[in-house]
């Protein structure tokens, strides 16, 4: 399973990078395959593993912000591993001349 999610603190002003970094740190310390870009952090693992990481990432932001917004998208495909890499490699292969 791959989950792409975004945690946004509300009520803390426009500069939210330090709060988002708290969430990303939780993901990176989880040991699960992950990737962060400008809009989302993606993490791959079992349902229980991934949802636990998302819950803890939200809690890390919630500890410092009065309100938190969570956007989550999941690709639930049993038996598939290394999807974070293989999905991108497939697209890149189709883009190659």
UniProtKB/TrEMBL annotation:
It holds the Pfam family Thiamine_BP. SUPFAM superfamilies: MTH1187/YkoF-like. InterPro entries: MTH1187/YkoF-like, Thiamine_BP, UPF0045_domain. Residues 3-92 form the Thiamine-binding protein domain. Signal peptide: none annotated. NCBIfam families: MTH1187 family thiamine-binding protein. PANTHER family: UPF0045 PROTEIN ECM15 (PTHR33777:SF1). Belongs to the UPF0045 family. This is MTH1187 family thiamine-binding protein. It comes from Streptomyces flavalbus.
């Amino acid at each position: 399973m791959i989950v792409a999610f975004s945690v946004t603190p509300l009520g803390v002003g426009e500069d939210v990078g330090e709060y988002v970094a708290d969430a990303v740190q939780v993901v990176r310390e989880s040991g699960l395959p992950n990737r962060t870009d400008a809009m989302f952090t993606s993490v791959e693992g079992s349902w229980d593993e991934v949802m636990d990481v998302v819950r803890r990432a939200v809690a890390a932001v919630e500890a410092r912000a009065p309100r938190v917004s969570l956007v989550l998208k999941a690709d639930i495909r049993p038996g598939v591993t290394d999807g974070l890499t293989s999905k991108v490699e497939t697209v890149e292969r189709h883009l190659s001349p």
